[in-house]
Amino acid sequence: MSFADLHQSILRVPPGKWAVGVSGGADSVALLTLLSRRADLTLHVVHLDHELRGEESREDARFVAELAARLGLACSVARRAEIEPTLSDRSTNVEARLRACRHALFRRVVRENALAGVVLAHHLEDQAETVLMRLSRGGWLWTLRSMGLDSRVGDLTILRPLLPHRRARLREWLVSIGQEWREDSSNRSKQFARNRARAAMSATGVDVGQGGELAASLVELAESASRLCAWIDAALAPLPERFCAGELAKLATILARRAGMRWLAAHGCDPAALSTNVLDRFIAMARDAATPSRQHFPGGVLVRRRGGIISVELPRAAARSSRAVPRSFPDA
Predict the structure, then answer these.
(1) CB of 95 within 8 A of CB of 88?
(2) Model confidence over 86-139: pLDDT tens digits?
(3) Long-range own/partner contacts, residues 9-12 (CB < 8 A, 24 or more apart)
(4) Domain presence at residue 227
(5) Residue 153 β-bridge partners
(6) Mean pLDDT (whole number) for 297-321
(7) DSSP states of 39-77 as a string?
Protein backbone atom coordinates (compact mmCIF):
# COMPACT_ATOMS: atom_id res chain seq x y z
CA MET A 1 0.00 0.00 0.00
CA SER A 2 1.34 3.42 -0.99
CA PHE A 3 1.42 6.29 1.51
CA ALA A 4 2.57 8.93 -0.94
CA ASP A 5 -0.35 11.15 0.12
CA LEU A 6 0.86 11.27 3.73
CA HIS A 7 4.48 11.86 2.76
CA GLN A 8 3.39 14.65 0.40
CA SER A 9 1.50 16.35 3.23
CA ILE A 10 4.50 16.08 5.53
CA LEU A 11 6.50 18.05 2.95
CA ARG A 12 4.40 21.09 3.95
CA VAL A 13 6.59 21.41 7.06
CA PRO A 14 9.45 23.77 6.16
CA PRO A 15 13.00 22.51 6.82
CA GLY A 16 14.34 23.48 10.22
CA LYS A 17 13.91 22.88 13.93
CA TRP A 18 10.40 22.03 15.12
CA ALA A 19 8.68 20.82 18.25
CA VAL A 20 6.25 17.91 17.77
CA GLY A 21 3.33 17.43 20.14
CA VAL A 22 3.08 13.71 20.91
CA SER A 23 0.46 12.25 23.24
CA GLY A 24 1.34 8.64 22.49
CA GLY A 25 -1.92 8.06 20.63
CA ALA A 26 -2.06 6.81 17.05
CA ASP A 27 -2.44 10.23 15.41
CA SER A 28 0.59 11.90 17.01
CA VAL A 29 2.75 8.76 16.76
CA ALA A 30 1.93 8.60 13.04
CA LEU A 31 2.90 12.26 12.68
CA LEU A 32 6.19 11.73 14.52
CA THR A 33 7.21 8.66 12.53
CA LEU A 34 6.42 10.42 9.25
CA LEU A 35 8.35 13.56 10.22
CA SER A 36 11.31 11.53 11.47
CA ARG A 37 11.92 10.27 7.92
CA ARG A 38 12.77 13.80 6.78
CA ALA A 39 16.52 14.44 6.91
CA ASP A 40 16.04 18.22 6.75
CA LEU A 41 14.10 18.42 10.04
CA THR A 42 15.46 18.64 13.57
CA LEU A 43 12.66 17.45 15.85
CA HIS A 44 12.01 17.95 19.55
CA VAL A 45 9.26 15.74 21.01
CA VAL A 46 6.96 17.41 23.58
CA HIS A 47 4.57 15.52 25.86
CA LEU A 48 2.28 16.79 28.61
CA ASP A 49 1.14 14.32 31.25
CA HIS A 50 -2.41 15.51 31.92
CA GLU A 51 -2.44 13.46 35.14
CA LEU A 52 -6.03 12.37 34.56
CA ARG A 53 -5.53 8.60 34.53
CA GLY A 54 -2.93 7.84 37.19
CA GLU A 55 -0.48 5.12 36.18
CA GLU A 56 -1.94 4.98 32.67
CA SER A 57 -0.94 8.63 32.14
CA ARG A 58 2.56 7.94 33.43
CA GLU A 59 2.82 4.98 31.05
CA ASP A 60 1.93 7.29 28.16
CA ALA A 61 4.77 9.61 29.16
CA ARG A 62 7.24 6.70 29.37
CA PHE A 63 6.09 5.39 25.99
CA VAL A 64 6.65 8.78 24.33
CA ALA A 65 10.07 9.24 25.95
CA GLU A 66 11.19 5.77 24.85
CA LEU A 67 9.90 6.31 21.30
CA ALA A 68 11.78 9.61 21.08
CA ALA A 69 14.97 7.95 22.37
CA ARG A 70 14.64 5.13 19.83
CA LEU A 71 14.32 7.70 17.05
CA GLY A 72 17.29 9.65 18.42
CA LEU A 73 15.22 12.77 19.16
CA ALA A 74 15.27 15.28 22.00
CA CYS A 75 12.25 14.99 24.28
CA SER A 76 10.61 17.22 26.90
CA VAL A 77 8.01 15.72 29.25
CA ALA A 78 6.13 17.80 31.82
CA ARG A 79 3.27 17.21 34.22
CA ARG A 80 0.10 19.27 34.31
CA ALA A 81 0.87 20.17 37.95
CA GLU A 82 4.07 21.89 36.79
CA ILE A 83 2.44 23.93 34.02
CA GLU A 84 -1.02 24.84 35.31
CA PRO A 85 0.16 27.23 38.08
CA THR A 86 1.97 29.31 35.44
CA LEU A 87 -1.23 30.04 33.47
CA SER A 88 -2.42 33.63 33.65
CA ASP A 89 -6.03 32.66 32.93
CA ARG A 90 -7.32 29.33 34.25
CA SER A 91 -10.55 28.47 32.46
CA THR A 92 -13.22 26.61 34.41
CA ASN A 93 -13.61 24.37 31.35
CA VAL A 94 -11.34 21.34 31.82
CA GLU A 95 -10.65 20.84 28.11
CA ALA A 96 -9.81 24.52 27.61
CA ARG A 97 -7.50 24.47 30.63
CA LEU A 98 -5.67 21.36 29.40
CA ARG A 99 -5.27 22.93 25.95
CA ALA A 100 -3.86 26.07 27.59
CA CYS A 101 -1.38 23.89 29.52
CA ARG A 102 -0.23 22.19 26.32
CA HIS A 103 0.22 25.50 24.53
CA ALA A 104 2.14 26.92 27.50
CA LEU A 105 4.47 23.91 27.41
CA PHE A 106 4.89 24.18 23.63
CA ARG A 107 5.78 27.87 23.98
CA ARG A 108 8.34 27.13 26.67
CA VAL A 109 10.05 24.37 24.70
CA VAL A 110 10.00 26.40 21.47
CA ARG A 111 11.49 29.44 23.24
CA GLU A 112 14.13 27.57 25.22
CA ASN A 113 15.34 25.58 22.21
CA ALA A 114 15.02 28.28 19.52
CA LEU A 115 12.53 26.22 17.50
CA ALA A 116 10.36 27.49 14.65
CA GLY A 117 7.10 26.32 16.22
CA VAL A 118 5.18 23.14 16.93
CA VAL A 119 3.71 20.50 14.59
CA LEU A 120 0.45 18.87 15.70
CA ALA A 121 -1.44 15.81 14.47
CA HIS A 122 -4.94 17.22 13.89
CA HIS A 123 -6.75 15.36 11.11
CA LEU A 124 -10.02 15.57 9.19
CA GLU A 125 -12.19 14.06 11.93
CA ASP A 126 -10.73 16.50 14.46
CA GLN A 127 -11.85 19.30 12.17
CA ALA A 128 -15.36 17.89 11.86
CA GLU A 129 -15.72 17.28 15.61
CA THR A 130 -14.54 20.83 16.37
CA VAL A 131 -17.19 22.32 14.07
CA LEU A 132 -19.91 20.15 15.61
CA MET A 133 -18.90 21.22 19.12
CA ARG A 134 -18.99 24.89 18.14
CA LEU A 135 -22.38 24.48 16.50
CA SER A 136 -23.73 22.83 19.66
CA ARG A 137 -22.61 25.88 21.65
CA GLY A 138 -24.42 28.24 19.29
CA GLY A 139 -21.30 29.23 17.40
CA TRP A 140 -21.44 32.06 14.89
CA LEU A 141 -19.60 32.53 11.63
CA TRP A 142 -16.15 33.34 13.03
CA THR A 143 -16.15 30.43 15.45
CA LEU A 144 -17.07 28.00 12.64
CA ARG A 145 -13.92 28.68 10.64
CA SER A 146 -11.76 25.67 9.90
CA MET A 147 -8.47 24.99 11.62
CA GLY A 148 -5.72 26.03 9.25
CA LEU A 149 -2.80 23.98 8.00
CA ASP A 150 -0.77 26.66 9.73
CA SER A 151 -1.78 29.27 12.28
CA ARG A 152 -0.48 31.43 15.09
CA VAL A 153 -1.76 31.43 18.65
CA GLY A 154 -0.16 34.50 20.18
CA ASP A 155 3.55 34.08 19.50
CA LEU A 156 3.31 30.33 18.82
CA THR A 157 3.40 29.01 15.24
CA ILE A 158 1.36 25.81 14.81
CA LEU A 159 1.46 23.49 11.78
CA ARG A 160 -1.13 20.78 11.06
CA PRO A 161 0.11 18.95 7.95
CA LEU A 162 -2.20 15.92 8.41
CA LEU A 163 -5.42 17.95 8.49
CA PRO A 164 -6.72 16.66 5.10
CA HIS A 165 -6.38 12.99 6.12
CA ARG A 166 -8.70 10.66 7.99
CA ARG A 167 -7.95 8.99 11.29
CA ALA A 168 -8.09 5.51 9.74
CA ARG A 169 -5.43 6.45 7.18
CA LEU A 170 -2.95 7.28 9.94
CA ARG A 171 -3.56 3.92 11.60
CA GLU A 172 -2.99 2.15 8.30
CA TRP A 173 0.42 3.82 8.14
CA LEU A 174 1.34 2.68 11.66
CA VAL A 175 0.27 -0.88 10.97
CA SER A 176 2.32 -0.92 7.76
CA ILE A 177 5.53 -0.02 9.64
CA GLY A 178 4.75 -2.18 12.70
CA GLN A 179 4.61 0.79 15.06
CA GLU A 180 2.54 0.48 18.24
CA TRP A 181 0.67 3.32 19.92
CA ARG A 182 -1.19 4.01 23.15
CA GLU A 183 -4.97 4.01 23.55
CA ASP A 184 -6.32 6.72 25.85
CA SER A 185 -9.17 5.31 27.96
CA SER A 186 -10.42 8.84 28.68
CA ASN A 187 -11.47 9.08 25.03
CA ARG A 188 -14.48 7.01 26.05
CA SER A 189 -15.47 9.41 28.83
CA LYS A 190 -18.57 11.54 28.21
CA GLN A 191 -17.08 14.18 30.52
CA PHE A 192 -15.35 15.81 27.56
CA ALA A 193 -17.22 17.66 24.83
CA ARG A 194 -15.08 16.23 22.03
CA ASN A 195 -15.93 12.68 23.08
CA ARG A 196 -19.62 13.56 23.17
CA ALA A 197 -19.36 15.06 19.68
CA ARG A 198 -17.63 11.93 18.41
CA ALA A 199 -20.32 9.73 19.97
CA ALA A 200 -23.10 11.89 18.54
CA MET A 201 -21.67 11.60 15.04
CA SER A 202 -21.32 7.85 15.37
CA ALA A 203 -24.92 7.63 16.60
CA THR A 204 -26.12 9.07 13.29
CA GLY A 205 -25.04 5.84 11.64
CA VAL A 206 -22.46 7.79 9.65
CA ASP A 207 -19.22 7.05 11.47
CA VAL A 208 -16.67 9.78 10.81
CA GLY A 209 -13.95 7.19 11.03
CA GLN A 210 -15.39 5.31 8.07
CA GLY A 211 -15.57 8.10 5.53
CA GLY A 212 -19.06 9.29 6.44
CA GLU A 213 -20.72 12.16 4.64
CA LEU A 214 -21.41 14.01 7.89
CA ALA A 215 -17.71 14.62 8.52
CA ALA A 216 -17.20 15.83 4.96
CA SER A 217 -20.19 18.20 5.25
CA LEU A 218 -18.92 19.68 8.50
CA VAL A 219 -15.47 20.22 7.05
CA GLU A 220 -17.02 21.85 3.96
CA LEU A 221 -19.00 24.15 6.27
CA ALA A 222 -15.82 25.15 8.11
CA GLU A 223 -13.92 25.83 4.90
CA SER A 224 -16.80 27.92 3.52
CA ALA A 225 -16.94 29.91 6.76
CA SER A 226 -13.20 30.56 6.50
CA ARG A 227 -13.50 31.85 2.94
CA LEU A 228 -16.44 34.10 3.83
CA CYS A 229 -14.62 35.47 6.89
CA ALA A 230 -11.54 36.23 4.81
CA TRP A 231 -13.68 38.12 2.28
CA ILE A 232 -15.41 40.12 5.03
CA ASP A 233 -12.11 40.98 6.71
CA ALA A 234 -10.72 42.26 3.42
CA ALA A 235 -13.82 44.35 2.66
CA LEU A 236 -14.71 45.66 6.13
CA ALA A 237 -13.03 48.93 7.05
CA PRO A 238 -11.75 49.04 10.64
CA LEU A 239 -13.48 51.32 13.13
CA PRO A 240 -11.36 54.34 14.08
CA GLU A 241 -10.08 54.98 17.60
CA ARG A 242 -13.12 57.16 18.31
CA PHE A 243 -16.13 56.54 16.12
CA CYS A 244 -19.68 57.71 15.65
CA ALA A 245 -22.14 55.17 17.04
CA GLY A 246 -24.00 55.31 13.76
CA GLU A 247 -21.01 53.78 11.93
CA LEU A 248 -21.45 50.55 13.86
CA ALA A 249 -25.25 50.72 14.20
CA LYS A 250 -25.84 50.74 10.46
CA LEU A 251 -23.91 47.54 9.81
CA ALA A 252 -25.65 44.18 9.48
CA THR A 253 -25.21 42.22 12.72
CA ILE A 254 -22.74 39.73 11.25
CA LEU A 255 -20.54 42.63 10.09
CA ALA A 256 -21.06 44.65 13.27
CA ARG A 257 -19.91 41.72 15.38
CA ARG A 258 -16.70 41.38 13.40
CA ALA A 259 -16.05 45.13 13.43
CA GLY A 260 -16.69 45.18 17.18
CA MET A 261 -14.44 42.18 17.77
CA ARG A 262 -11.56 43.80 15.91
CA TRP A 263 -12.00 47.15 17.67
CA LEU A 264 -12.26 45.64 21.16
CA ALA A 265 -9.30 43.29 20.56
CA ALA A 266 -7.22 46.25 19.38
CA HIS A 267 -7.96 47.96 22.70
CA GLY A 268 -6.88 45.07 24.91
CA CYS A 269 -9.77 42.60 25.02
CA ASP A 270 -8.89 38.92 24.71
CA PRO A 271 -10.50 37.79 21.41
CA ALA A 272 -11.27 34.40 22.98
CA ALA A 273 -13.47 36.16 25.57
CA LEU A 274 -15.48 38.06 22.97
CA SER A 275 -18.57 35.85 22.78
CA THR A 276 -21.64 36.78 20.77
CA ASN A 277 -23.29 38.01 23.98
CA VAL A 278 -20.35 40.34 24.68
CA LEU A 279 -20.26 41.59 21.09
CA ASP A 280 -24.02 42.14 20.97
CA ARG A 281 -23.76 44.20 24.18
CA PHE A 282 -21.13 46.36 22.48
CA ILE A 283 -23.30 46.75 19.37
CA ALA A 284 -26.28 47.71 21.56
CA MET A 285 -24.26 50.67 22.87
CA ALA A 286 -24.26 51.98 19.29
CA ARG A 287 -27.83 51.09 18.40
CA ASP A 288 -29.73 51.90 21.60
CA ALA A 289 -29.17 55.18 23.43
CA ALA A 290 -31.03 53.75 26.43
CA THR A 291 -28.21 51.29 27.18
CA PRO A 292 -25.62 52.26 29.83
CA SER A 293 -23.17 54.79 28.39
CA ARG A 294 -20.17 53.29 30.24
CA GLN A 295 -19.63 49.53 30.15
CA HIS A 296 -16.76 47.18 31.00
CA PHE A 297 -15.60 44.53 28.56
CA PRO A 298 -13.22 41.54 28.99
CA GLY A 299 -9.75 42.53 30.09
CA GLY A 300 -11.00 45.52 32.10
CA VAL A 301 -11.60 47.65 28.98
CA LEU A 302 -14.02 50.48 29.79
CA VAL A 303 -16.00 51.74 26.78
CA ARG A 304 -17.77 55.10 26.88
CA ARG A 305 -20.50 56.63 24.69
CA ARG A 306 -20.73 60.39 24.89
CA GLY A 307 -22.51 62.64 22.42
CA GLY A 308 -22.94 59.72 20.06
CA ILE A 309 -19.18 59.04 20.02
CA ILE A 310 -17.81 55.70 21.26
CA SER A 311 -14.29 55.43 22.66
CA VAL A 312 -12.23 53.72 25.32
CA GLU A 313 -12.18 55.57 28.62
CA LEU A 314 -8.68 55.60 30.06
CA PRO A 315 -8.09 55.21 33.81
CA ARG A 316 -7.73 58.63 35.45
CA ALA A 317 -3.99 58.23 36.07
CA ALA A 318 -3.39 57.26 32.47
CA ALA A 319 -5.59 60.12 31.25
CA ARG A 320 -3.62 62.66 33.35
CA SER A 321 -0.36 61.24 31.99
CA SER A 322 -1.69 61.52 28.46
CA ARG A 323 -2.65 65.18 29.01
CA ALA A 324 0.74 65.94 30.56
CA VAL A 325 2.60 64.98 27.38
CA PRO A 326 1.56 67.23 24.49
CA ARG A 327 1.13 65.45 21.19
CA SER A 328 2.71 67.84 18.74
CA PHE A 329 3.96 67.28 15.25
CA PRO A 330 6.71 69.14 13.39
CA ASP A 331 5.70 71.66 10.76
CA ALA A 332 5.57 70.25 7.26
Answers:
(1) no
(2) 887 666 678 888 888 999 999 999 999 999 999 999 999 888 888 888 887 777
(3) 9/161, 9/162, 9/164, 9/165, 10/34, 10/35, 10/37, 10/38, 10/161, 10/162, 12/149, 12/159, 12/161
(4) no
(5) 156
(6) 80
(7) TTEEEEEEEEE--SSTHHHHHHHHHHHHHHHHTT-EEEE
Contact indicator for 148, 107 with CB cutoff of 8 Å: no
Asked whether residue 34 falls in the same domain as residue 157, the answer is yes
Query: What are the beta bridge partners of residue 244?
Result: 309
How many structural domains is the chain composed of?
2
Whether residues 118 and 255 fall in one domain: no
The number of beta carbons lying within 10 Å of the beta carbon of residue 205 is 8
d(CA 9, CA 265): 34
| pLDDT, tens digit (0-9, with 9 covering 90-100), for 225-271 | 889 999 999 999 999 999 999 999 999 999 999 999 999 999 988 88
Range of the domain at 316: 243-324
Q: Are 134 and 177 part of one and the same domain?
A: yes
Residues 190 and 268 in one domain: no
Indicate the helix (H) or strand (E) that contains 305: strand 301-306
Higher pLDDT, 274 or 267: 267
Taking residue 140's Cβ as centre, other Cβ atoms within 10 Å add up to 15
Q: Using alpha carbons, select from 283, 312, 299, 305 the residue that is nearest to residue 140.
A: 283
pLDDT tier for residue 200 given thresholds of 50, 70 and 90: low
Q: 299 and 273 in contact (C-beta within 8 Å)?
A: yes
Residue 78 belongs to a domain: yes
